[in-house]
Design a protein that fits this description.
5-stranded parallel sheet, about 950 residues
Length: about 950
């Protein structure tokens, strides 16, 4: 018993007033009694340990109408509280005719919140804005609803208002910090809702104007000011405060100071990840002293008022990347905000697309996918804005030409770009051009010595010089030759020189630049064990930028463990690079040489078999992902059979992680396989990988590959593959809002599907066309016919998820045709199918559709429930396109309930997921947002939204322009 008492005494009391008034000992909630008893507890807690006299407490609890036995009641409440406190009853002190609670530091939630706020202020003043945001968020998390909830009395009412005001001030401080670290797009939604709840609070209006302006919505920002000015005049008879008026003027003149200031961007909080992407520098870097100094001096100028750009040119294997990486590491202290790196694959068949590279850079800098727009220009603008005020180095390795590089240049002072390329970029403006030649004989010999060892080289110095000369003084060739010698202790340097000389004679038809490199490759390749040589040849066949261990093992037809040992042995020879744990890649020259060897030494059937195994691996594994995401969907049953079962996954997240991490390799494989006997599997692969189109992150690359396969199948006369590829391409175009292109592909796919009697296009295309007729062309009768055709085709195929998907779409059409009850019944029927299949993503679609139908029938509360659940499921499935659409529908549902503040908040969240759904979808959301703002009395901002929406619709030739024009007419009249 004594031990239990000591344990209880060791657990201090905690109290909360930022919500219900409660007392806790450890994890145990204590009984604090009736509302009046809680009122006494709250009154004592909020006095900070000071004594409250009996008259003060009576007045605070009962005001002007206390009971006759008020003092006795106080004593009773105090006694009960002491009893509830148990062994800690002495924290409630009676003295001087009153009471006090002295419970120690950190025992009351509001005290903890104030301490956190004070620490946040200190962190902000010291420049650590990330820490300041973290601390303020911790403070805000302590609020659990309405302060002093359910507590009666005048004192509680006064304190409730004070605590609510304090909460709002902290929110304003946190939003101010959000804007300072680049979270303006995300802040607009919350600020829109807050200004609706507190329309006369000018600080919130000021923050909203700034957030809109930084989000590229200048017209709306100015409209917020005009709405505020009118509201203040009508309600209070005053003009906006000086700060708000000044901000208005600065926005009018596009004041450059309104962009994220330098001092605010140096530590951009959790959204600013300091990237450290530079590859490891080699430990035996040798020579190049003049180039190192020249490039280092140029990069150092980035600390001044200009952006430094250096472009290193030279033949393959001359050491451009090694030099650039070495210099970049040495210059890291000049770029404390991070270093970006990308291999632009300029020497390969498919150079990296600037748009995809910019997306990767923005994610590396902390920009969420939802905030990354489509298009090179839009991404480049966001990239430059994100880097503004920061000091970041971008190493752009292996570029094809200046056109590929230009969008990737930081463009702001304090930043720098270091570019390597085989071409001399004379057309890259303001760049310092560095022409890298082969090493000097002395430098070459030093590099060779560092790898082989001084003892062996010193004994045969002349032979060593012959070796490096035979290598053409090219670093890559020297490194490979030296690695070969280092691994063979019985060889002499002279023996190596003799072998290399013989190889050179065999390759005398090659041009000088590649001669030494290929000779060295021949030497290294010739010394490989048969199994190593086979792996070297076959790995070079795959088109992807790198390859995973699992994929490599399948390509080589080996067990994973054995394949790993073999690959690591190739890494030791310097013929293969380990890009990351479990991933491997070739230098582009080595890849080309490996392919030459495969052409020369590997039978055609063996080469084709290796690539076929790789394709089977990707197709089977991607089909597993599709099945996890869409259980019961018959597409996987119609895919071409594979000889490899593919990987399996324990859950949905693991499946999606694999798909997105392998996206580049998978799409490269699909494109490479669009020929001959593998054409059909290439088309099937992009069908199974449809999540890459729906997620948004890989949509452009997916479209390009689908289009390439469609064209290749057409040229080959493969009607089945062409029909499927065009089916998936139509879907991708529809997701991007390119409805005319989608319709053209869908018509071709349907004709091909009918010709080949393929259930994939004949069931999916009518569904796609129905969506186009519904969303874009506003032809409900034609859409209904398409969806009924799709339903019949899906049923004939036994595709229950497909049937449910078409039922969802038909529900939408019936809603447009004012067949309300049918719309609800169809949605419920679809939802029942999805629920029976345990289909998470499509279950979300079912709930989404039912929510729309319920909204249309006036059942907004039920609609909100369905749409909110759909939103959570879309997030779980990593579907930002559908997430944004759910926010739009939630906004529409709130409008029917006359809840414009909530409607505006959801519309803003839909807009924050920019780049998903295309411009047409953005215009639809802007229209909804304008309606919500009108109900909130923000007519000028609403008009700004509608004008932007109208411009988009007119540019696209969309029928929705008529509705927006009608909305603008009353505004114009007013």
């Amino acid at each position: 018993m004594a031990g239990e008492k000591e344990q209880v005494q060791g657990q201090h009391l905690r109290f909360t007033v930022l919500g219900p008034v409660r007392a806790w000992r450890g994890e145990e909630q204590l009984n604090t009694g009736s509302p009046q008893q809680k009122a006494l507890l709250a009154a004592l807690l909020l006095r900070g340990g000071r004594t409250a006299t009996a008259p003060e407490l009576v007045d605070g609890l009962w005001g002007d109408d206390p009971p006759d036995a008020a003092i006795a009641a106080l004593r009773t409440y105090a006694s009960r509280l002491r009893k509830a406190f148990g062994v800690d009853s002495d924290v409630l002190v009676s003295e001087s005719g009153g009471y006090a609670i002295r419970s120690g530091v950190g025992s009351l939630d509001i005290d903890v919140a104030e301490q956190l706020a004070a620490e946040a202020e200190k962190a902000q003043h010291s420049g650590d804005r990330a820490r300041a945001r973290e601390l303020i968020n911790q403070a805000l998390d302590l609020w659990q609803g309405e302060p002093l909830a359910g507590v009666p009395g005048q004192y509680a009412e006064t304190q409730r208002a004070r605590l609510a005001e304090r909460h709002l001030v902290l929110i304003e401080n946190r939003l101010d910090l959000d804007l300072s670290v680049g979270l303006h797009t995300e802040a607009v939604s919350e600020l829109t809702a807050l200004t609706a709840l507190h329309p006369l609070r000018e600080r919130l209006r000021e923050l909203l104007m700034l957030a809109l302006y930084r989000s590229g919505r200048q017209a709306e920002a100015l409209a917020v000011y005009n709405d505020t000015r009118r509201l203040l005049a009508d309600e209070l008879g005053v003009d906006p405060c000086a700060a708000l008026s000044e901000l208005h003027q600065r926005i009018l003149r596009a004041d450059a100071g309104l962009a994220l200031p330098v001092e605010f961007r140096a530590d951009a909080g959790p959204t600013f990840v300091r990237p450290a992407q530079l590859p490891a520098t080699v430990s035996d870097f040798t020579g190049r002293t003049a180039f190192v100094h020249e490039l280092s001096d140029q990069l150092a100028t980035a600390e001044g008022r200009v952006m430094a750009v250096s472009a290193v040119a030279g033949i393959g294997g001359v050491g451009k990347t090694t030099l650039a990486v070495h210099v970049a590491h040495a210059a890291r202290h000049h770029f404390p905000d991070g270093q970006l790196y990308v291999d632009l694959q300029g020497a390969g068949p498919v150079p990296a697309e600037p748009e995809a590279v910019l997306g990767a850079f923005l994610r590396a800098l902390g920009i969420p996918d939802s905030s990354i727009p489509d298009g090179v220009d839009e991404r480049a603008a966001l990239y430059r804005s994100t880097l503004d005020g920061r000091r970041v180095l971008a190493l752009l390795d292996n570029a094809r030409d200046a056109a590929q590089v230009r969008p990737l240049l930081p463009g702001t002072e304090g930043c720098a770009a270091l570019v390597t390329s085989r071409t001399r970029m004379v057309d890259l403006e303001s760049a310092q051009l560095v022409d890298l030649d082969v090493m000097s004989p002395d430098e070459a010999l030093v590099l060779f010595t560092r790898i082989v060892g001084a003892e062996r080289v010193d004994a045969e110095r002349e032979a060593a010089m012959d070796v490096v000369a035979a290598c053409g003084f090219l670093p890559l060739a020297i490194r490979i030759a030296a690695s070969r010698l280092a691994a063979r202790r019985t060889w002499t340097v002279a023996a190596l020189a003799h072998r290399l000389g013989n190889e050179r004679r065999r390759l005398d038809e090659l041009r000088a630049g590649d001669l030494a490199v290929k000779a060295t490759f021949e030497l290294g390749y010739g010394q490989l064990e048969p199994q190593q040589a086979r792996a070297f040849r076959l790995l070079g066949l795959a088109d992807g930028p790198d390859i995973s261990l699992a994929a490599a093992a399948v390509l080589l037809d080996m067990e994973t463990f054995a394949a790993e040992e073999l690959l690591e042995s190739l890494v030791d020879t310097s013929l293969l690079e380990s890009a990351a744990p479990g991933r491997y890649r070739y230098h582009d020259l080595v890849r080309l040489y490996a392919r030459d060897c495969a052409e020369r030494d590997q039978r055609s059937a063996e080469r084709d078999a290796a690539l076929a195994r790789l394709l089977d691996f990707y197709l089977a594994t991607t089909a597993q992902v599709y099945a996890v995401e869409r259980p019961g969907d018959r597409l996987v049953d119609h895919l071409a059979p594979t000889d490899h079962p593919g990987l399996t996954f324990p859950n949905q997240n693991a499946a999606l992680d694999w798909l997105f991490s392998e996206a580049d390799c998978l799409l490269a494989c699909a494109r490479q396989s669009a020929r001959g006997a593998t054409m059909g599997k290439a088309a099937d692969l992009i069908g199974a990988a449809t999540d890459l189109a729906e997620s948004g992150a890989n949509a452009r690359r997916y479209e390009a590959v689908a289009a390439a396969i469609s064209q290749a199948a057409h040229e080959a006369g493969d009607l089945l593959a062409e029909g499927r590829a065009r089916t998936f391409l139509a879907h991708a175009y529809s997701l991007a809002g390119r409805y005319d292109d989608a319709e053209a592909q869908a018509q071709s796919a349907m004709a091909l599907g009918l010709a080949t009697k393929d259930p994939v296009p004949t069931s999916r295309v009518p569904n796609q066309r129905g969506i186009i007729f519904t969303l874009h062309r506003k032809l409900p009768e034609e859409a209904e016919a398409c969806f009924l055709q799709a339903i019949d085709a899906f049923r004939e195929d036994g595709n229950r998820p497909g049937e449910a998907s078409a039922l969802c779409s038909l529900s939408r059409v019936h809603l447009e045709m004012h067949r309300m009850q049918s719309a609800v019944e169809l949605a419920q029927q679809a939802l029942g199918i999805f629920q029976s299949l345990g289909h998470i993503l499509r279950l979300a679609n079912g709930k989404y559709t039912l929510g729309i139908a319920l909204t249309g029938t006036g059942k907004a509360v039920e609609a909100l429930e369905q749409l909110t659940e759909a939103l959570a499921l879309f997030r779980q499935s990593r579907q930002p396109l559908w997430e944004g659409m759910a926010h739009q529908r939630l906004a529409e549902a709130h409008l029917t309930m006359h809840s414009p503040a909530q409607a505006a908040a959801h519309a803003e969240q839909a807009l924050a997921l920019r780049g998903h759904g295309g411009e047409w979808r953005r215009a639809i959301v802007l229209t909804v947002l304008g309606k919500a703002l009108t109900e909130l009395g923000q007519s000028e901002r609403a008009e700004a939204c509608w004008r932007e929406a109208l411009a988009i619709h007119e540019r696209l030739g969309a029928t929705e322009a008529t509705e927006v024009q009608s909305l603008l007419m009353p505004a114009a009249t007013a």
